[in-house]
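Contributing new records

If you add data, match the layout below exactly. Sequence lines come first and carry their own label; structure lines follow with theirs. Keep one chain per record. Anything else will be rejected by the validation script.
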Amino acid sequence: MKERLSGSKELMNFLTYLEVQKNYSVYTRNNYQKDIEAFLSFCSERKISYSTITYPEAQSYLFYLYEDKKNQASSVSRKISAIRRFYQYLSNQNLVQNSSFSLLKLPKKEKKLPKFFAYNELEELFCIPDQSTPLGQRDAVILEMLYATGIRVSELVGIELNDIHLADRTIHILGKGNKERIVYFNQATFNRLKKYLADGRKVLNQKQLSFLFLNQRGGQLTTRGVEDILERIIQKTSLNKHISPHMIRHSFATHLLNEGCDLLSVQQLLGHESLSATSIYTHVTTDRLKEVYLHAHPRARKK
């Protein structure tokens, strides 16, 4: 009897493993599921046994991603990494002997400098939400909090009321891999947050939820919902650029470094596991670097 080439049961077990044993976020698990399901579908269409896939067959999937799907190198690397992790799990469970994907050579990822907003561009964004409405008050806090703390959007939508400490202006954040950290917010964020808590959130909280940010139906705001909110806001400005929550996170890190904050502190505030993940921001702080150089170098100080 010919083997069914789905692998769906093994995939579901793998996703459970990521959730229970590795504490991966829902967002990360969904990405793994999407990438691996696409691969299994490819195998099924071409009558390839995923459990005994050969090196040429693995190469054919790599070619398919590049040539047929027109994926960028970074996307291909992510997809292949997900598949490799899946096969590593299958091997540990004695379901496969080896993985041809471990032999594939991938091109080095192109390092792209993070895009960020200038100070005046952020000020224009902050002026857009109509704070006379519950949704406007919510959107104003979202903008201020993303920039004040540098948190990820997945962390933002997970904030609950008891995570916030108004007295010392701190928020308890549950980050990637269930790692906890404390972030801080400023007076501007404090003012808008107090207004939202006292007014707009009470109107929106039809379902009596504990989450800070709610949608217009009273449910928990999603990451996609935040992306839509930011896109609607920037369309009302004079800024001719795309916006994403991560751009505000990039702005947070870049502006801190430009103002003299050390890299290790920025790493801790961002919740990065390694300093190498934070070091990319050193490439975009040239204004601060030039200022330090002109001030510090003996011959540069001479007129």
